[in-house]
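hi! just following up on the protien thing from before. the input was this:
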Amino acid sequence: MKIVRPRIAVKLAAAVAAAGLAVSGCSTNQLGAAALTGSSRISSATLTSEVANLNAAYESDQAKGIKPQRAVGQETQQVLSWLILFRIYDQVAAQNQISVTPAQAEAQLALLSKQASASSVTLTEYVSAAGALPPDLVPQLGRYFAILSALEGKIDGGKTPTTTAGQSAVATGVSHAQCVAAKSLNVKVNPQFGVFDYSSYSVVIAPPTLAANPTPSGSASPAVTTPPC
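and the predicted 3d structure came back as:
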């Protein structure tokens, strides 16, 4: 089960979120921050609370026979990715003169609710099991998709492209806007939680600093921590 939004080539990234320009553990810990985005921060207390909300949702889901679709044991990175992604898309909206209404956000959630119903689950079960999103953050998810939809509309002129080339152009435009927004926020993640990977827009667990062979054959590629834009 995978959360998707029915519109052209842009899909909800499995990981979502942040950039890995990790600041020193000392300064970030002193601030009590899990991540810094521009002049604001995501506190460690907020992250801890939201991870608890996600784990509670997982317990409820599993009691109903619904299994999480994301990697188990990475809830902290998954939740922090969402929290950062929402900040990035607020910046996308500001940089691209996009304003969305609560009604537009609700419309996006209505589309997700239909997908959830098709899988015989509720919206909260859908976003937690498929997306590792704490259910209390559902309103922010609706706003995120509303901003994304408006951005796509700006790029394609309101006409959904029907060709592969057209779809690729929109996807490229969205990726660039997302990258520019993240870069302008100078996203920094507390090293104790991982690093921000620009290749997946997610927080990933940092490899051991003194690894003898940090990227052995067959292992995951190292995180891209420099904005490619």
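Residues 6-30, 210-218 have pLDDT under 50 and may be disordered.
The beta strands are 33-37, 40-43, 188-189, 195-197, 202-204.
cheers
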